[in-house]
Fold this protein.
Amino acid sequence: MLSLVEFQRRIAGDILHDAPQEGVDVHRGTILGALVNALRLTFPTVVKLTGTDFFDQVATEYARDNLPRSAVLYFYGDGFPDFLRDSNGARALPYLWDVARFDLKIDRAGHAALALQTQAIPIDPQLEVRLASSLTCLQVIYPVDLVRDALDAGYPKRLSDLDMTPRPRHFAIWRGPDGAAVKPIGPAAAAFLNTLLKSGAAEDALRHAMQFTCATDALAEIQTDILGSSFTRLTWSTA
Amino acid sequence: MNPRFSRNDACRSGPVSATAGIGLRLPHHRWLLEQRPAVHWLEVHPENYMTAGAQSAELEQIANDYPLSLHAVGLSLGTAGGPDLAHLERLGELVSRYEPYLVSDHLSWSAVDGTYFPDLLPLPYTDEALDVFAEGVDLTQSALKRQMLVENPSKYFPLPHAMSEADFLAELVRRTGCGVLLDINNIYVSALNCGSDPDGQMHEYLAKIPHSNIGEVHLAGHATVIGADGRQRRIDDHGAQVCGPVWRLFRHAIETLGPRPTLIEWDTRLPSFEVLQGEASVAQWILEESAPAEHLYAIAR
């Protein structure tokens, strides 16, 4: 008789390798179905763009090779956008990778805590900022926000009206009081934010931002897109 | 229109009543919060709330008005290396937050070598599996500082067991003091899939497991499919009304055990909440008809 771990490895192998053993196919179907469903929930815009048949086919291929490490499936599928980009059928839609990454960031923000960073970042001697702890920055080249909005509104024909010219676009994405929140930001603001999130050093962030535009314009963009945003809490020192 | 339900109706501070509850799924949250229908209690999968997403805040509101039970699917208590401790910690946080009346998981495993399979996979009922499972239950009950219930699973193929499922569960109860969540649809489905008699299986359960440890009953529908080999197979998909033979087994169980908190589960092809209320009302009717009324509201967890 097999030991318990040998038995479990054998069942796992039968599930993964399509063994014809009667009854294992039921478990295989349940497992792949649960994972495909988790991916559908995380990538709703991709599902709408590709249709469920194509999506389920790619998602099933992904799930077979990428089983989760945890029972909490909300955080499953980080690698799906890259898998999608490399899949044959998806190459006809060049913007799909960007859309998938946008979906993923929005989904993760929606599950993040509504909280600020614990550590304040000094901007100058009188000013500190705290950012939303869930805040991330995404760079894409297609108007993924407009694609998602058009599909959410149920007007897929409007997609043809969108300017799909590839050019850098940046978004701040975070958990707001009503769920995930998204704000388009300029390139200098994105450079500032990315550096700030990585290093927590405002001077480095500002220097990075000024590589994209002149100091005056960079500061104006940072003021509007970052310091004036609801994901930022400013604290002025009265000393 | 459904009568509105408030926390005062639910006797939340007392022991859970031996009444019919409903398995709550995410698509019903909004409706439930708006309509506040009369439901004795609700059961949720804690894995759906191990996030700071909106559903967790909604459950917080729901838990203010309805008694809750947490029915886990992710502890993987039968895994050879022991249960997922990170998952147990997450479950512990939810138990502290929602103070559920009942906490349960399954007589199954879902992970091996760190890979998680989102399903309830069958255990061989051997001495080694019993040692592993009992250790997992001990660990869980110690961490949660409470008794947990263990549910009998659905099975799709026979395994070379050293003991029967009822014997395995009875010994688990003896070693750990855990409770048993008796899923009657699972008994029915497993018996038919493995070539045994559902009545005989139910009889063995009721004969071998101490009645005082059977703390909850589950009822659900299942699908019947014909395989490529032409054989009929029952799939525990929780996607239909409870079938007649399962209602009959339920009545027999309640007549033997006395009333128990009984849950209607429905997961796939989810209908409106009112359909679930209809199923729960049938279970409630059987509970009331099969047991003295004074017992209905006085069962300890």
In short: The mean pLDDT of chain A is 93. DSSP finds ten helices and six strands in chain A.
